[in-house]
Amino acid sequence: MDLEAVIQRHEEAFKKIAGLAPQFKREMMKLDENAYKVRAEISKEAISCRIHNRKSIRYHELVAKLEETVNTMEHYLTLATLLT
Question: What angle do CA 44, 60, 64 make, to 5 degrees?
């Protein structure tokens, strides 16, 4: 999956967090914070990739890590929604 689609899914998941009960919201915000950290690392690595005119293995690994984090967020959102 490409980076733009993963970022869009992350933004949609973040919007859904606002509607959760407070006990779930705290935990989801921790996951969201981790996703933003990975996005920051991707941004730094993207600069390096532009300098070298190719995408590095680390860049692809970070995108995969972000996708995994977003998948986890979506699963927990579904679970939290069912429990409320």
Answer: 105
